[in-house]
Every structure is written in structure tokens, then in C-alpha cells.
Amino acid sequence: MRKRSTNARTERAGLIAVEKACNELNLIWRDLFQEDVGVDGTIEIVVGDFPSGKLVGAQVKSGRSYIRSETEDSFRFYPRDGDLDYWGQLSIPLFLFVHDPETDITYWLDVSRHIQARGDDPLGTAYLLVPKENRLGERFADYLRGLFDLSVYDDAQFAALRAELEAITHTGGVGAGEVTVTALDLFVGGLWGLCSKLQFHSSLLADVFRKAVYERRADIVVRYSFSRADLYPFFIAYIAAVTTHHLATIDAGDINESLYRKLEFPTFIAPLTTNGRRFVDYLRAHGRSDAHDNRYFTLAVIPHAQIEVYSRFDGERDGRPVFGPYTDVLGISFNPHLDYYYVEHWRRTEPEGPASQVMAQNAFYFELTDYIERTFHGVDKDTILLRHLDIPLTPLSCWLERWYESEQPMAGSAFGGKSNVENYGLHDELLSIFGAAGAVDLSEPIVPRLPLSRLGSGELLRRETG
User: CA 456, CA 386: separation in Å to the nearest integer?
Assistant: First the structure.
């Protein structure tokens, strides 16, 4: 008589457990009977009495042998060679289900999100860490609805979310310039596209600082740090909250690429989900009148700062510094929405000769600050003239004030008015408003070329031609 395999019975128990749970959770389970090469079935989400058309794939494993390195809170699952590559190529999200026949508990894990977070790191972990709190039940159904923008919080949940964002804080500045910024401030400051999108870049934080000190009308010394150690925990906690509560559709892989491979601040423009848009409505109805659209946006790099280095410093005359011939001039333009700079560095070796171009390229924040520090390390700061060409409270201008060792207070009024970002962004808006109906041509504003030819000393920057 032919004997049935114990493994077959165990594997079937896992499939039955998942199918039964889906039926109880008002989800549609469909077996894939042909050629199981990494997906055992699909699950369709149901909204009320109607199938939503939103599908996820399911890979089901059953048996204690799949539960490795178990702790009180989690265990490891080791996929076979090629599994992660195959799952990463699927056009639908893939979920892993691990059924423990001894306890009759089934655990789940969003494998697609794990693959996104892992990125292209070839040395990434060879296992999937499955939290034991991920038991197949209502939590899983809620997660699926959130994954596809099918769930919207009620007022009590929005109130808890608001409190969570307000509890994530970062404090910068000293004395009268000390400002505490919350993750909620970043969310509100990042609203764009008629409040249909959420943008993020490090200048959002600087803009909150700027508005706060301008309202105080106090003289302050610019002392705001944009170091990785100070800001990574704050930014990561904010982005994690936005992702966890499904307020915007954010690419976790892109965020990790910026943070851990490029070692730069992340930037993104992400569409708000239904939950995110409803959260904006909730904030407006509950005291955050500033939860409105931030209109100004431009793809141009705009005048930001100029650094001039001279052969000597000859003191002051009539209250103005007097310098010898210049040696180096750096013109720095900036696009805050994409968080990158364009730098031209010109150097003169002969006191009366023209300057030759040393460097002209785009750079991210830490690339640029490293270049400035390395190039002018040991140079007497008295021979350096720092010229802010925009409102002097941006990530780079804050760093330059520290590097320049400036202790001179700035009047609070210096942080008001429109920045170059708003002026050139308004140009883009006017073109789109007054342009011909149906026109899709994009014309960027004409911006001054940096470095400026007339230097702070009165000397002219003569550029080498050819």
C-alpha cells in the first residue's frame, strides 16, 4: 500500500491555515496549482462586499524546520538560493507565510518591503527576520489595506498620529536662536502640488529655523548643525512614521541609497495617499492653519554664496576690510528642492594674471563641505571673504558660518522676505499661468552666473579663456 508523505501533510496544513484565515478576514485566496516556482497563491483584498482588484502573492512554508534562531520576539527564515532575486522581480508584492504546526500559529512578512530596504547590497543578510507579533489575523488585513491606500484613519487615530509626530523633535541653535522642530513641522512644510504631494529635503528644516528666528526679531549668531550625527536619527524617525502610517508613497530603497551608500540626506517628492490627504484635512480642522500648499518650486540652481580668498588682509579702512590680490573664488549655486549645489572654483597663481577654472560640477552637501574644508584647510580666515547671496539660513550657509568661525550676530530682519528660491519659483509659476493653453514647454528663469565678476574687494575676476 502506498504511504502518504508526512512533509506533504505538513505543507498542506500551512496552505489550509492561510486559506482559512483569508476566508475569516474577508480576503480572497486563490491557489496556484501549476508549477510552484516561488508563489503558492494570491490574495485579493475585499472592500466591504466588493473585490478591490488589488492582489499580493503568497509563499507558504509549513514546519518547525523553517523557524530558525528563535527568540521570544522573532525568528529567522532562510530562503533558498535565488528566491530573493525571483521575488524581487514579481510585479505584485510578495508575502511570506510561515506556519508552525505545533502551535497552529501562522506568521507573515512583507518580503517586497524587505527587498526594497535591503537594496543592492550583496553582503545583505542571508535570512529574513520574522517578528512574532506578525500573526496572521486582523493586523495583516489592516496592513494590506494600508499597503494599497484602502484604509483611512478616524479622528482618534489622527490625533494619536499627530501626537507621535510632535514627539519626534530636533533642537538647533543657541541663545535667542534656539528652535525646536517637530516631525509634524517637516510634514506641514513639505506639502506641495495643491497638497497632493509631500516633498522632503534638508532645507525644509532650515526654513523652519529661519521662520522662527524671523518672528522673534532678535539678533542671533547662526549656530545650526547639519551633521549626520545630529540629523540622521531625526530624519529617519520622521520618514519611518510617514511610511508606517502610510501617509505618502515613499521608496524605501531610494532613501537607504542616499543615507547609507551616498552618505547624504535623502530627498523625495512622493504622492500623498488617501490617508495622507485626509490627515491634511484633519490638521486644518484642528488648529494647524499652516497646513497649506507650499507653492514655490524650481528646478533651477540659484545664486547662493560666494567665497573669495585673498593673498593677505591689510586691515580696515573706513569700516571696510582691505585685501591684497585674490587667489581663489568659489561661486556656489543651489537647488534646495533637490538638495544639490553647482560649484565653480577659479584660482589665480599670478597676482595680475587671469584665473583658471579648477572645478565646475554638481555636488551634494557633504561632498561640497568636504571639498571646501580640504581645499582651504589652514588658510587664515582673515584672508577669506564670505558673501551670502541669499537669506543666510540654509544647510550650507549654517556650515559656512561655523567653518568661517564667525561670531557676529545677524539681525532677525535678515531672515525675512522672499528667498531666491521663492523669487525664481514664482517665475516658473507665472510662466505656467500665463502660457498658452496646452503648452508644455518649460522655460527656466535666467539666473546670474556665479562667481560674480565684481569681487568684494572691488577687484574684477578675470577668467582665463580657451
Answer: 9
